[in-house]
Amino acid sequence: MSSDKINADKLTGGAHSPLRRKLLLGMAALPAIGLLPRGALAQALPTDAVNTTKLAVTDSTVKVGILHSTTGTMAISETGSVQAEKLAIAQINEMGGVLGRKIEVIQEDGASDWPTFAEKARKLLVEDKVAAVFGCWTSASRKAVLPVFEQYNGMLYYPTFYEGLEQSKNVIYTGQEATQQILAGLDWVTKEKGAKSFFLIGSDYIWPRTSNKIARKHIEMHGQKVVGEEYFPLGHTQFNSVINKIKLTKPDVIYASVVGGSNVAFYKQLKAAGIDLNKQTLMTISVTEDEMLGIGGENIAGAYACMKYFQSLKNPNNEKFVAAFKKMWGGESVIGDVTQAGYLGPWLWKLTAEKAKSFDIDKIAAASAGIEFTGAPEGYVRVHENHHLWSKTRVGRARTDGQFDVVFETADLIEPNPFPKGYQ
Amino acid sequence: MFEGYSLAELGSIFAMQGFAGLILFSVFVLMALGLAIIFGQMGVINMAHGEFMILGAYVTYLCSNFISTYAPALFPAYFFIAMALAFLASGALGMLVEWGMIRFLYRRPLDTLLATWGLSLILQQVFRSVFGAREVGVVLPDWLMGSVAVTDTIEVPINGLFVMGLTMAITIVIYAVMFRSRWGQGVRAVMQNRVMAGAVGINTEKVDRYTFGLGCGIAGVAGSAFTMVGSTGPTSGQLYIVDTFLVVVFGGAQSLVGTIASAFTISQAQSTMEFFLSGSTAKVLTLLTVVVILMLRPQGLFVLKVRR
């Protein structure tokens, strides 16, 4: 699907009156009565059978929403997710769509503003009656739209690794929750580097604080020590004082969850202060290939990142995915963990709809558990009953060219556990 | 937190901490100088100050790409070229903005707040459309990276020293221009009494335009220098704007000396507290202190004595 097409959808989507839409839907349903069957599958699965709740499904199309920030501060991070979701949708359409119906995208801009996210989510569900929404990035935006999705019974595919402590019938979490991402990495650094002391540093909001709480519990459970725990306001740009504190406390591992523009300042100043990341172990859970672009590979080379996906992952799925992504969005583009998780959303939804033989939200929600996606770039994934994904965790080592060398991956898929006992 | 450390170790940590404070001080002065001229001297509340800085940062980015592709031999020195270009680019845009927008608003200072805020949003979106939403990485020449080892245990970041030197140089130049040149005299005259300055033959429109351009140009240089310590993205300017206004208002808006004194106070307080307390607490305490002092002394630390 070309981006022109998507834009046109977006432009005209808001102008139609609900009445006109109903009329159009009615007209579009006419062929189903038997005048002109379109495509074998659509005929086998008539619209009123796969869509009993008046979603925007016709004999030949199904509408979905993409809801990310393309303006405002979060556009930096969310652009990759939008691109991945559009790629997945284009690929699915090439294969014939979902249940014989082509996917049409209605894209809305959350504008990095949480009330706007809620408003646009309501628009997508109530006016556009989309069958699924792929979107949100920050926890704040997800928390803002969650009541909307639960009230109007929509389906959200949420791509970001996040702090956990949430589970909803109306959300599929395609990124990792905190324990999946954190625990394996800590165990690895303990075993590999003999780490005994940790310095936790993060941006001051829910995700780093919850993640560090889990990390601290795990560290202390194993008899190791946290020698410092620091948070800085979002957008903080001066880290020289805390770097001195790190020098004073000499931790075996710096454990970083700094995000956004602060990230760049933190690594540049770390390097300028003479901390060589080839000698000082640093593990981050917030730097993906996307962030590396801004930080500059030379400033962070040697650091370890712990997440489920790296662009450099070697498997046939990923090679195909990276090539297709670059073909669609340009050879310069990089793919981070969340971008890959964004790519999973449309595929998981397609597989679920085909298993449920329906677009109905309740049937999709019920059929989601156990859905397997063997074509995932990160390798095989499976949806857990708690609507999170079983996935492997990997540790990558940052290179100067902005990519990671994968140095470790867990042998098995890790079970998602959004409400970890003993870690709260 | 100091048990188990030798006196020498503590000494070197405190020395490095002192440098950290000085570097923060330089950063504050550098980002506030341009605004001190525009807000302090002209009374224009320029909410787009951060975006002028980021324009300078993007010029540096383009310059580093251009030079590393076409004239790699010049790369070690490219930063100086980039800063000069950043000054010109931000200054030119500043003059354009003054001509197209600000000059209609001199009598309505509060409206400049809204107008320049709108301008900042427009500029952010322009950056986003031109350079993409993601942050860009500015590659530094090798000599600007790493640190100088003063002793075995004391290490000082080179880019910090560079910012300190640059700040000092710019401050001296500004001082000379504003207080030792005929042009600066004209600027000060216009700010004190626009009508009278016009009456004695000063071309006030021209003075306004160049003053605004100078302020924005300095913002551009600051942005260029900050590519060494911070991020370069469409909205990075927002990271600096609050601190910048804080420094200028706290110092007493109309006094350049006040700006420097206030930058020193705030930076030392913040960097010391960050070391002993946590980062967020330090910020809260700094802001609280500033609020209390401004309640007691609303005009800021230093006041220009003018007969009104």
Describe the structure.
Chain B: Belongs to the binding-protein-dependent transport system permease family. LivHM subfamily. Chain B: It is a multi-pass membrane protein. Chain B: Keywords: Amino-acid transport, Cell membrane, Membrane, Transmembrane, Transmembrane helix, Transport. Chain B: It holds the Pfam family BPD_transp_2. Chain B: This is Urea ABC transporter permease subunit UrtB. The complex is a heterodimer of chains A (424) and B (308). With 424 residues, chain A is of the alpha/beta class. Chain A folds into 2 domains: 247 residues, Response regulator (Rossmann fold, 3-Layer(aba) Sandwich); 148 residues, 3-Layer(aba) Sandwich (Rossmann fold), CATH 3.40.50.2300. Chain A is 44% helix and 17% strand. In chain A, the strands form 3 sheets. A 7-stranded mixed sheet of chain A has the order 7-6-8-9-10-14-15, with helices on both faces. In chain A, helix 5 runs parallel beside helix 15, helix 8 packs across helix 9 and helix 11 packs across helix 12. Chain B is an all-alpha fold. Chain B has one domain. Chain B has 11 helices and 2 strands; from the N terminus they run H-H-H-H-E-E-H-H-H-H-H-H-H. Chain B has a two-stranded antiparallel ribbon. In chain B, strand 1 and strand 2 form a beta hairpin. Chain B is globular, with a radius of gyration of 20 Å. At the A-B interface, helix 5, strand 7, helix 10, helix 11 and helix 12 of A face helix 1, helix 5, helix 9, helix 10 and helix 11 of B.
